[in-house]
Amino acid sequence: MPKFIVLLIIVFFIILSLLAFFNKGAVDLTVWNGVTFENIPVIAVILVSTSIGIFAMLIIIAIRDAKRYVHSWQLQRDQKKELKIQELYAKGLDAFHADRTEEAAELFNRVTESDPSHIGALLRAGDILFEKGEMVKARESYMRAHEIMPGNIEALLSLERVDHDRQKWQEALKHIDSILGIDEGNLKALRMKRDIQEKNAQWEEVVETQNKILKTNLAPEEEQKEQQNLQGYRYESANHYLQSGVLDKAIKKLKSIIKADKDFIVAYLSLAGAYEKEANYKDAEETLRKGYEETSALVFLAWLEDFYITRGEPGKIIDLYQKIIQEQPMDYRLQFFLAKLYYRLEMIDYAFNTVNAIEMTAFDSPDLHTLLACIYVRRSDYESASDEFKKALKIEKAFIIPFCCSHCGYKSRKWSGRCPDCSNWNSLTLDIHEVCNIRKRQSRS
Description:
Mean pLDDT: 85
Structural class: mainly alpha
Oligomer: single chain
CATH class of the domain at 116-214: Mainly Alpha
Low-confidence stretches: 395-399, 438-445
Largest sheet: 3 strands, antiparallel
Order of helices and strands: HEEHHHHHHHHHHHHHHHHHHEEEH
Strand order of the largest sheet: 4-3-5
Shape: rod-shaped
C-alpha cells in the first residue's frame, strides 16, 4: 500500500511538471466582484485547484469514516444492551417456569424499563398479575403489548382471557374477532367464541361458529365429535324457539335435525312436545311412535305411556307393549315396563302375572323386586312383600327408574336432552338393570 501511494505521488508530480512546461503563461483570476488577481501563472491556478479538491476529498472521507465509527459504536452499544435484556428476560423465564413469581416479576420489570416495547416481558408480567388476581393491572400489561404489536395473537388471547374471567363477554368476543380477522381458521379462537356464545345462549350464532369449526382441518375423530356437537347446537336453537313459543320455527328445525340424524332421540321428544303445544296430538303420537321404531329407545315408551294415560287411552299403550313383547319375548325390560304400567293403573293381578312371567335369573333387578313388593302389599301378602323389599333394599335403590348418561354414567331423576355432567346430547336413557354401568365397563374394556 505505501509503495502504491509513492507511485501516485510520483505520477502526480510528473503530470504537474508537464503541465508547467506546456503552460508558462499567466492569467487574471477574479474571485469576487471587484477582487481580481492579475498575472497568476497557470500552473499555480492548477496547483491551487488540485489542492482544494484533494482537501475537500479528505474532509469528505474524514466525515464518512467518522459516521462509520459512530454507527459502529452505537451498534455495539445496542447489541450489548440487547444482550443484557435477553439475559434478564431468560432469567425471568427461568424464574417464571420455576414458580418464583416475585423474582420473575422483578426481572420482567427490569426488562421493560430497559426496553418498554419488549412484548414477551409485558405478556409474562401480565400472566403473573393475572395469577395473582390483579385483573386491571394484568389487562394494562396485555394492552401495552397489544398497542405495540396489534397483530400479536398471544396478546389478544391474553386480553380475551382477562375479559372472559371478568365476564365481559362483548369485550372478549371483540378480541376473538380480532384474532379471526388475522387468522380466520384459528381453531382455538373459534372454540372460544363458540363457548362464550353458548354461555349466553346465542344458539343461532353458536351454530354459525360451529359450521366454521367444521371447515377447519380436523382429525377424523375430532370431526365426528364436532358433527355431533353441531346437531346438539341445532337442537338447542330449536329448543330455544320451542321454549319461546315460536312453534313453527321450532318444528321446522327439529324436523331438519331428525332428517339429518334419525337416532337423535331428544329431537323426536321435543318435536312431539311442540305438536302437543299446538294441540296436534295425532302428529305428537306419530312422532313418538316413529322415534321408537327408529331408535328402539325405551324412553319413547315411557313418554307414550304418559301421553296415552293423559289422553285417557291407556288401552293403546297396553296394546303397544303387548305387540312389542310378542316381537321381542326375551326382552324382559318390556315385560317389566308392562307390569309397572299395570300397577300404575291398579290392575294388580295383571301386574302380578306379568312379573311372574319374567325370568328372575335373567333380569334380577332391584327395581323388579321393589315392584313385586308393592304388588304383594296391594294383595295383602305382607310377608312376601317384606322379603322383596329386603332384596331391593340391599342395593338401596328406590322404586323410581332414574335416567342415566350412557357416556359418563351420570344419573338423574329428571330427563334432559343434554347430560348436565359431561354436556353430551342424546345420551340420557332409562337406567334399567344398571344399563349405563354395564356400558361404561364395556367401553373401558
